Amino acid sequence: MKLVKFILIVCICACSLKAVAQNDELKKVNISLVGNKITKSDIILREIGFEIGDNLNFQEIQNVVDESVANLNRLRLFNFIDVEIVENKNEILVTYNLQERWYYWGYPILEHSERNLSSFIHYRDWSRINYGAAFDWFNFRGKNEVLRFKARFGYKEHYAISYHKPGFGKRRVDGIWAFADFFRQKKVVSGIYQNKPSYWQSNDDYLRKIIDVGLQYSYRPKIKYAFEIGLKFRQYIYNQDFYNDDLAGITNPRYIMPKIAFNYDNRNSIVYPLTGFYANLRVTTSIFDNTDFSDNISLNVLLQQNTSFGETKLSLRNEMFAGKDFYDNNKRILFDESFNFYEGFFMRGYEYYYFPSDFIASSKNTLSYKLFDFRLNVLPSLLPDEFSKVFSIVYLEAFADIAYSNLSNNNLHVEQNMFGDGFAYSAGFGITVETYYDRLIQFRVAYNAYFNKFGIFAEFKSPLYKRF
Asked: Is residue 41 domain-resident?
C-alpha cells in the first residue's frame, strides 16, 4: 500500500513538473486579427507590444496580452476586443477578435456653452446656446487618422477644419496635426465678479473674432508615451466701440504661441480608468506683437493614479493638478489670455465658479464601486454591426477635492475673488454611467465647504482633450 502511494506521489509530481516545464517553454508566437475590415493591420500590431515570431512562454503572453488590450482601448477604434490564446505543440496562437466602431459621424449641434450641464441649469441663459452641424471622420483611410469639419452658430460661432495623423513612417512613431479655427461672438465674458462671469453683449455687432491656425508634431517612440511640439498663430479682432478703453486702442492683437508637451499613459481606459498611471506636462507661450502688453508662459502638470483593489469592484483615482501662468507684472495682460489659463478648471461642488488666478493647484480623489455592467444584443438587426450591441457600466462614487489658488497681481478684470490665497474644499457622492461610444453621464451630490451648502450637479461629457 505504501508503495502504491509512493508511485502516485511520484506521478503527480512528475506531471506537475511537466506542466510547469510546458508553461515555461518558449514557443513562437503567431497573431491573428479578426474583424478589422477598415483598420489597417499595422495600426493594430503597433499597439500589441510583441511581434509575430517572438519566442515567449504562455504566462508571458497572458501578461502582454492584457497590456495590449489596454493599448488598443486607448485608440478608441473598437467597441469590443476579445482575445483567445491557444497553445499547441509548435506555437502559441493569439487571436484578437475586434468589433470596429462607426467612424463616420455627421451630426447636428445643439449644445449649451457652459463648462458643465449644472452651470447651464443654474444660469438658465438661453442666449448661450450653440447650434449647427459637424462631420467627424474617425479612422480615416483605416489609419487612425481623424478629419473634422464644423459649422456652429449661436452664442459662440465656430467654423473649423482639422486633420490628425497620429502615426506615419515605417515605425509609426511620428504624428502630425493641422487645424484652422474661426470664432466670433456677440456676447463675451468681459470679467469676473465674485468668481462668476460678467458679460458684454451686442445685438447687432460681433464683439470679438478669433482666428487660430496651427501645426503640431508628435513623436511616440514607445507605446505609452509621446512628445509634442507645436506652433499656433492667433489673431484677435475686437469691436473698438466696446473694447477701446480696455485695449488702449489695440483692436487687432496678434500672438505667436509655441507649445511643448509630454504625455505618458498606461491606463486601461481614457474614458473611465480603473488602473494605470497618466501624466501630462505642457508648456505654452503666448508672444504678443505689442511690447506694451506682457507675453506669458503657461505651465501645466496633471498626474493621475488609478488603483484597483484586487478582485473587488473597488478602485481609487487620485488626480493632482498644478498650473502656473508667468507674465510681466509691470505690463498689462490681455484678459482673454489670462482667462484662457483658468477657464476650464473647476472643482466638484464649485461648478458655477471660476478660480481667477495665475497659480492653481488641486487634488481630486474618487473612490468608485462598480455596481454592474451589461452588454446586450437588443438593437434592430437592420442597423450596422457597429450598433448591434449596447454596452454600459454603472459606478457608485464618493469623492473629496481640495484646491488652492492665489490672487493675481495684474488681474484688473477680477473683482472680489473669494477663493484667492486660500484653500477650497468639497466632498460628496454620485453615480457615473459609462455609455456607448465613450460618453459619461454623471450625477452627484456635493458639499461646498466655502458656502457650507450642498448641491445637486449633473454632467455629460466625452474624453476629448484639447491639444492647445
From this structure: yes
Give the side-chain half-sphere CA count within 13 A for 117: 12
User: Are 214 and 73 in a shared domain?
Assistant: no
User: What's the CA gap between 291 and 297, in Å, rounded?
Assistant: 15
Helices (H), 329-387: 335-342
Total structural domains within the chain: 2
Q: What share of the chain is helix, strand, coil (3-state, %, to 5)?
A: 15, 55, 30
Distances, alpha carbon 465 to alpha carbons 123, 186, 455, in Å? 25, 26, 27
Query: Taking the C-alpha atoms of 247, 184, 176 and 223 in order, what is their torsion angle to the nearest 10 degrees?
Result: 90
Q: How confident is the model at residue 168, as a pLDDT?
A: 83
Better-scored residue on pLDDT, 117 or 333 = 333
What are 87-103's pLDDT values in tens digits? 888 888 999 999 898 88
pLDDT at 21: 44
Given 100, 124, 157, the domain boundary residue is 100
User: Residue 140: helix, strand or coil by DSSP?
Assistant: strand
Determine the Cα–Cα distance for residues 130 and 115; give it in Å rounded to an integer: 13
Q: How many CB atoms lie within 10 A of CB 346?
A: 20
Closest CA to 357 of 371, 367, 343: 343
pLDDT at residue 244 tops 60: no
pLDDT at 36 over 90: yes
Going by C-alpha positions, the residue among 316, 319, 300 that lies closest to residue 308 is: 316
- Mean pLDDT rounded to a whole number for the chain: 85
Note down the domain range covering 165. Answer: 104-461
Is residue 468 situated within a structural domain?
no
Q: Is the pLDDT of residue 106 over 70?
A: yes
The residue type of 22 is Q
464: its cell numbers: 476629448
